[in-house]
Design a protein that fits this description.
Number of helices of chain B: 12
Organism (chain A): Sulfurisphaera javensis
Largest sheet of chain B: 9 strands, mixed
Strand content of chain A: 15-25%
Oligomer: heterodimer
Number of strands of chain B: 17
Family (chain A): To ferredoxins from P.putida and C.tartarivorum, ferredoxin I from A.vinelandii, ferredoxin II from D.desulfuricans.
Order of helices and strands of chain B: EHEEHEEEHEEEEHEHEEEHHEEEHHHHH
Strand content of chain B: 25-35%
Helix content of chain B: 25-40%
Radius of gyration of chain A: 13 Å
Pfam families (chain A): Fer4_ETF_QO
Bound molecules: flavin-adenine dinucleotide, iron/sulfur cluster
Strand order of the largest sheet of chain A: 1-6
Helix content of chain A: 25-40%
Structural class of chain B: alpha/beta
Distance between the termini of chain A: 20 Å
Shape of chain B: globular
Keywords (chain A): Electron transport, Iron, Iron-sulfur, Metal-binding, Nitrogen fixation, Transport
Largest sheet of chain A: 2 strands, antiparallel
GO molecular function (chain A): iron ion binding; iron-sulfur cluster binding; oxidoreductase activity
Chain lengths: 93, 386
C-alpha cells in the first residue's frame, strides 16, 4: 500500500503557517550528497523530498512523530507544533 | 491570569498530575495542543491495571479487551519460536483517544480546568506562554511527551540521539467485534497481545493488539538502524505484517500513525528545577524492552503532583518500582541491541526449539563461543527482575 493511501485515513486540519522549516538549504544540498538526507528515509509520511537541489517539505502530511529532527546531521530543521489544535487528529492513537 | 499549577499536555502523565493536584485542592489548569486529549498520541497499546489503579479509580476504565493470552514470538528470516503466556496480572488493551479522554475527565472531575487546541510555545520564569496568551503559575508540570521541545528549550534535557530513539509506527485495521473474536478465538471481552522480536530486515520489536472491533499492528526500530540501512519505516512495517496478512484479511485500514519512543532519560535528564517539573515520556520514562510507558507516565505525573519540592520529587522517582524498572532495563536493552547480540538470541531461541523438536541438540554447539556474552546478559537480566 502506498503512503498516500495510508495518509488518506487521517484527519488533518492544515495550519496555514508551516510548522516545519529548513534553516539553510545549502546544508541540505551538502547533506543529500554526503548523507543521502536521512530526513527523507526516516519520515513515515513522505514529508521530505529533494527536488531541483532543494529539500521540499509537505508539512501538511506530517504525523508529528518527531523523528526527522533527531536524524538531521546539520540540526537544520526548525520544528514547532502546529497551532490552535491544527495538524493531525487521531481516532484511535 | 494565575493558577496554583499549570500542566502542559493532557496525556497520561499530565492528567495524572493535574488529577493529583486538583484533588489536593490546588487550582489547576491543563493545556493541551490537540483538538482533544489523546488526538495527538500514539501507543500500541497494552496497560497494567494494577499500575493505573495506584492513582485512578479504574472501575469505568474504557478498555478495549482484557488480555487473556500474550504470545511472545522470536523470529529470524527462516524460522520462528513462540511462547504463549497466560498473564497473572490484569492487562488491558486500550486505544489512546478514549483512554486519554477518560483520564482528562478524571482530572476535570477533581476540579482541574482543561483547555485544548492551545500550544504552549515557551516558559519564562513562572509564566507559561501560549499562542492565546500568558498564564502565571505557582508550579509548572511539563508533560509534553517524547518530543520535548519545552524541556529542551529550558535546558532540563538534551535532544535524544538517533541511537537512543525508537520510531514506532502503527496501523489499525477495523472489522466487526465478532470477526475479531473469530480470528483470534476469543470470547466476550477477552483479548490477545502479541509481541514479536525479530532481526529481519533489522532488529525490531513488533506488536499485535486486539481492540473491540479492530486490530492494531505496529513495529518499533531504532532510528539509527533505519537510516543506516536505508529502510523506510512503512517498508519495515509491510515486511513485518506480511506473514500476518490472513489475520487482517478483509479488514479496512482506519488509521496510520507514528511516534518516537525514548530509550534514555532520567536520571541523565533532570526531573525538575525550582518549581518546574518534568514527567512521563518527556523525562524518557519508557521501558525500552516492552515499550511500557503509560504506567511510568501516570506514576511520575502523580509523584510530581504530590511533591512539595524538586528534591522530594527526584527522591520519590528513585523509590517508585515502575520508574526503577525502566532505569534497570536500559543497560540490558543496550547490551541486547548491541552489534549482533539480538540476532544471537533470536537464533539461539529458534535453533534451540527446532533442534529440540527434531531431537538433535548437537546443533547448539555453535553457541559455545557465545557463552560469556549470554552469562553477562543473564546477570543484567537479574538486575531487571530484582
Ligand atoms: C508505537 C508505540 C507503541 C507503544 N505501546 C505502548 C504500550 O503498549 N503500553 C504502554 O504503556 N506504552 C506504550 N507506548 C509508550 C507510550 O505511548 C508513552 O510512554 C506515553 O504516551 C507517555 O505518556 P506522556 O503523557 O508522557 O506523553 P504523551 O502521551 O506523548 O502526551 C503528551 C501530551 O502533551 C501534549 N503536548 C505536547 N507539547 C505540548 C505543548 N507545547 N503545548 C500543549 N500540549 C502539548 C501532546 O499533545 C500530548 O497530548 C508506545 C509508544 C509507541 C510510539
Ligand atoms: S537531514 Fe537535515 S540537512 Fe539533511 S536534507 Fe534533511 S533537513 Fe537537510
Ligand atoms: S515529524 Fe515525523 S512525520 Fe513529521 S516530518 Fe518529521 S519524520 Fe515526518
Amino acid at each position: 500500500m502506498r503512503v498516500e493511501e495510508r495518509l488518506y485515513t487521517l484527519r488533518y486540519k492544515r495550519d496555514e503557517k508551516p510548522h516545519l522549516e529548513i534553516k539553510d538549504q545549502a546544508n541540505c544540498a551538502k547533506c543529500y550528497d554526503t548523507y543521502k538526507s536521512p530526513c527523507i528515509t526516516v519520515c513515515p509520511a513522505n514529508v521530505y523530498s529533494f527536488t531541483e537541489g532543494k529539500i521540499v517539505i509537505s508539512y501538511e502530511n506530517c504525523l508529528e512523530c518527531g523523528a526527522c529532527k533527531i536524524v538531521c546531521p546539520f540540526n537544520n530543521i526548525i520544528w514547532r507544533y502546529p497551532r490552535y489544535g491544527l495538524g493531525i487528529s487521531l481516532r484511535y492513537g | 491570569m494565575k493558577f496554583d499549577a499549570v500542566v502542559i499536555g493532557a496525556g497520561p502523565a499530565g492528567s495524572a498530575s493535574a488529577y493529583t493536584m486538583a484533588k489536593a485542592g490546588y487550582k489547576v489548569l491543563m493545556i493541551e495542543k490537540g483538538s482533544e486529549p489523546g488526538a495527538k498520541n500514539v501507543s500500541g497499546a497494552m496497560i497494567r491495571e494494577a499500575v493505573i489503579s495506584k492513582v485512578f479509580e479504574t472501575k469505568d476504565l474504557p478498555f478495549e479487551r482484557i488480555v487473556k493470552r500474550v504470545r511472545l514470538i522470536f523470529k529470524t528470516r527462516e524460522n520462528e519460536t513462540e511462547i504463549s503466556v497466560k498473564p497473572k496480572d490484569k492487562l488491558y488493551t486500550i486505544a489512546r483517544l478514549k483512554f486519554d479522554k477518560w483520564l482528562a475527565q478524571k482530572a476535570e472531575g477533581a476540579g482541574a480546568v482543561l483547555i485544548t487546541k492551545t500550544t504552549v510555545t515557551g516558559i519564562e520564569g513562572q509564566k507559561v506562554i501560549t499562542e492565546r496568551g500568558e498564564i502565571e503559575a505557582g508550579k509548572i508540570v511539563i508533560a509534553e511527551g517524547a518530543n520535548a521541545l519545552l524541556s529542551m528549550s529550558l535546558g532540563l534535557r538534551r535532544e535524544l540521539r538517533s541511537e537512543e530513539t525508537v520510531l514506532g509506527i502503527k496501523e489499525v485495521y477495523a472489522s466487526t467485534r465478532d470477526e475479531v473474536a473469530k480470528r483470534f478465538g476469543l470470547q466476550g471481552d477477552e483479548g490477545e497481545s502479541w509481541r514479536i522480536i525479530t532481526d529481519y530486515p533489522l532488529p525490531s520489536a513488533g506488536f499485535i493488539y486486539t481492540y473491540k472491533d479492530a486490530v492494531a499492528i505496529g513495529i518499533g526500530a531504532k532510528v539509527d538502524e533505519i537510516t543506516q540501512r536505508d529502510i523506510r519505516p512503512f517498508e519495515l512495517l509491510d515486511t513485518f505484517k506480511e506473514p500476518y496478512s490472513e489475520l487482517i484479511k478483509g479488514f479496512s485500514l482506519r488509521e496510520y500513525s507514528a511516534k518516537i519512543i525514548p530509550e534514555n532519560g532520567f536520571p541523565s535528564f533532570k526531573p525538575c528545577e525550582g518549581s518546574i517539573y518534568v514527567v512521563g515520556d518527556a523525562l524518557g520514562l519508557v521501558d525500552p524492552l516492552t515499550f511500557d510507558g503509560i504506567g511510568p507516565a501516570v506514576i511520575s505525573g502523580h509523584l510530581a503532583g504530590k511533591a512539595e519540592s524538586c528534591n522530594a520529587y527526584s527522591n520519590s522517582l528513585y523509590e517508585a518500582s515502575e520508574i526503577l524498572k525502566v532505569m534497570r532495563s536500559r543497560p540490558l536493552t543496550r547490551e541486547l541491541l548491541k552489534g549482533d547480540n539480538l540476532s544471537l538470541y533470536i537464533h539461539l531461541v529458534t535453533d534451540f526449539s527446532l533442534s529440540w523438536a527434531e531431537g538433535d541438540l548437537s546443533k547448539l554447539k555453535y553457541y559455545k563461543n557465545s557463552l560469556g556474552t549470554i552469562l553477562k546478559h543473564l546477570l543484567l537480566g537479574l538486575e531487571v527482575v530484582q
